[in-house]
Design brief:
4 domains; three-stranded mixed sheet; Neurolysin, domain 3; Glutathione S-transferase Yfyf (Class Pi), Chain A, domain 2; alpha+beta
């Protein structure tokens, strides 16, 4: 039976900030009405208890997800004000829902009934997750505990949003206009042209550099002017803090402390020793200790090599660059020169071969070949910026599977970084299937003049990473929204498809599909590919210990903070850096003040997920290495056992179905050049 498909795209052009709050009130009132009606349900079934609320929540999500997305990618004072006014209402509703005892008891009755056994596994899993989430939402607390928990959630919602706003505002606040092009000596012509274009777009004469990542990275990596590198490094590494050019103006210090205290208090209210213990309750790992043991074990393996890599960098910088006192703002610059010397390769050498107008269709072709899909642009779609395009994915039978908005380039008033977000979730609405829609957002180097955007290989990898998340969301075949796509997937497994897909950025067969010189169309030459492979693990141990530093820091501050006192954040970071880091950080560095992943995103006491999932993704890819990177059967097995099942079963179970065994760390060590 072919079910009718529902495609619920956002109407971006009709979003009016002044009407948002009032419209949200209507949705919330409807959700509360539905909940009231459910409290009188006597015979709890999926259709009588779960489905009505699913549909009300879906309508609210379809309304609010574009607003939340626009707040991240087209931020304005008016929109921010409307968005921030909505957050306390959403937080209050969410807490109220999680603490609704009648709803909890009805769900419990459904779970213990004979009828429960007749449900498919996805629906059973969603109901089990619901019961767990009720407990984690404070349903069992006494009235005073419930009130306090609700207050904490309200405050956290406000603090984490303000934290994120501060980072965006601090990033936007700094720029430098350069009138003499000689100051930019060393930068590639494309980066200089971009700086000029940036100035022109603001009616300025000269060259404008700012803290958007493509601009910042170009200066740090290529500018011969050391004082310019230092100035930009200081501005970037002190954003939203008590240090640097905008010291105290957007300072997140107090926000960090308050967030940590409130998270600790909420965890203790729910019976957990710490926020770290609370965080792992919904993950694959069993305890914070298992996480720290895993991270420390990787650190022990990587550190000797990381120290050697750093020593080699220092020696090279002193001998060849006259930098006898290597500083933080010299690292990227000296590393690029050393890579050039050791491997005859600079990041800049590859850019002409990865124009966005070749890499993006090429990525679609890679995924098409791997999973039997076709991807095409949807013309005349309602988008929110000229850079944005809408695409649809179809399977081999030409059946529509999902859609996604692709927003690739860095610009002002757009949050930094790269991410995938849910626009619409696949689920059953009445007798129709609502198709999944995703937002895929990057901050890649924008096009300059008439040339296409030329991407670094690293940017291409980022694109593949986010597309992996998107496929996980869009290719699901699960119709229960709580476990459809990425919903209900343990957070430390959610990075599996994204990191897995990055592997196709390194294989000759797939590189031929994603590369082509922007002027001649010639594919990436063998010689350059060989250099890429020989340089693949250049400073890989240094990069690994940096990731471990972030992960251990995140876990430690959430383990040690209590409701009455946050841990000494800077002190904890310094200690971890001394123990596992190899590159000294300057006194003024305030990395934690813009660490949005853990203070404004979903990664609190969960940043380790990147490394944990990398074990899974490297191991899963090893099967393709053995059986062929475009082996149709293996591609189909990955599609059916990982991507299509979403959160309808545990991630470990899905992994074992695909690999026939539990994960092993060997492939990760081999890929990182640490196998020996």
């Amino acid at each position: 039976m072919n079910q009718a498909l529902l495609i619920n795209r956002p109407a971006f052009s009709s979003v009016k900030p002044q009407e948002i709050e009032q419209q949200l009130d209507v949705h919330l009132a409807h959700c509360r009405q539905v909940i009231d009606a459910l409290s009188s349900v006597t015979e709890a079934t999926w259709d009588s208890l779960v489905q009505p609320l699913e549909q009300a929540h879906n309508a609210m999500n379809l309304f609010f997800s574009p607003i939340s997305h626009l707040n991240s990618v087209m931020n304005s004072d008016e929109l921010r004000e409307a968005f921030n006014a909505c957050l306390p209402k959403l937080s209050a509703y969410s807490t109220e829902l999680g603490q609704n005892e009648q709803l909890y008891n009805a769900t419990l009755a459904l779970h213990t009934s004979d009828y429960f056994q007749t449900l498919n596994t996805a629906r059973q899993q969603q109901i089990e997750h619901s019961l767990r989430d009720f407990k984690l939402g404070g349903v069992s607390l006494d009235p005073a505990g419930k009130t306090r928990y609700a207050e904490i959630m309200q405050q956290l919602s406000k603090l984490t949003t303000e934290y994120s706003d501060h980072v965006l505002d601090a990033t936007n606040a700094w720029h430098k206009l350069i009138d003499n092009v000689d100051t930019l000596e060393g930068l590639p012509a494309s980066a200089i042209a971009a700086a000029k274009q940036r100035a022109t777009s603001r009616d300025m004469t000269g060259y404008l550099v700012n803290l958007e990542f493509p601009s910042y990275q170009a200066v740090m990596m290529f500018a011969n002017d050391r004082s310019l590198r230092e100035e930009m490094f200081v501005a970037f590494s002190t954003r939203a803090s008590d240090q640097g050019p905008h010291a105290d103006q957007f300072d997140n210090t107090q926000h960090i402390e308050n967030i940590l205290k409130l998270r600790a208090e909420a965890a203790q209210l729910l019976g957990f020793e710490s926020h770290a213990d609370y965080s792992v309750a919904t993950k694959m790992v069993q305890s914070p200790k298992q996480v720290t043991d895993f991270l420390n074990d990787l650190a022990t393996r990587a550190q000797p090599q990381a120290q050697q890599e750093y020593a080699a960098l220092k020696a090279f910088a002193a001998e060849h660059l006259g930098l006898n006192d290597l500083q933080a703002w010299d690292i990227a610059y000296a590393s690029d020169r050393l890579k050039k010397q050791q491997h005859d390769l600079s990041d800049e050498d590859l850019k002409p071969y990865f124009p966005a107008n070749k890499a993006i269709p090429g990525m679609f072709a890679v995924v098409g070949k791997l999973f039997g899909l076709s991807i095409e642009q949807v013309v005349d779609a309602d988008v929110y910026h000229p850079d944005v395009s809408l695409y649809c994915i179809k399977d081999a039978d030409n059946k529509l599977r999902g859609e996604f908005y692709l927003d690739n380039y860095a610009r002002e008033n757009k949050r930094g970084g790269a991410w995938m977000d849910v626009c619409a979730t696949r689920q059953l609405i009445g007798s129709e299937i609502q198709l999944p829609i995703a937002y895929l957002t990057c901050n890649l180097t924008p096009p300059v003049g008439d040339d296409p955007a030329l991407l670094t290989h690293n940017e291409v990898t980022t694109l593949f990473h986010e597309f992996g998340h998107g496929l996980h969301h869009m290719l699901t075949k699960v119709d229960a929204s709580g476990v459809s796509g990425i919903n209900g997937v343990e957070w430390d497994a959610v990075e599996l498809p994204s990191q897995f897909l990055e592997n196709w950025c390194w294989q000759r067969e797939s590189i031929d599909m994603i590369s082509g010189h922007y002027q001649t169309g010639e594919p990436l030459p063998d010689e350059l590919l060989e250099k890429m492979h020989s340089a693949r693990n250049f400073q890989s141990a240094m990069q690994l210990v940096r990731q471990l530093e972030f992960s251990l820091f995140d876990m430690q501050i959430h383990l040690d903070s209590t409701p009455s006192s946050p841990t000494d954040v800077q002190g904890t970071l310094n200690k971890i850096r001394q123990r596992v880091g190899v590159v000294p950080a300057p006194e003024f560095n305030r990395f934690q003040h813009s660490f949005s992943h853990i203070f404004a995103g979903g990664y609190s006491a969960g940043y380790f997920s990147y490394k944990w999932a990398e074990v899974l993704s490297a191991d899963a890819f090893s099967r393709f290495e053995k059986e062929g990177i475009f082996n149709q059967e293996v591609g189909k097995a990955f599609l059916e056992n990982i991507l299509e099942v979403g959160g309808s079963r545990g991630a470990m179970e899905s992994f074992k179905q695909f690999m026939g065994r539990e994960p092993e760390v060997a492939a990760l060590l081999r890929h990182s050049g640490l196998a020996a």
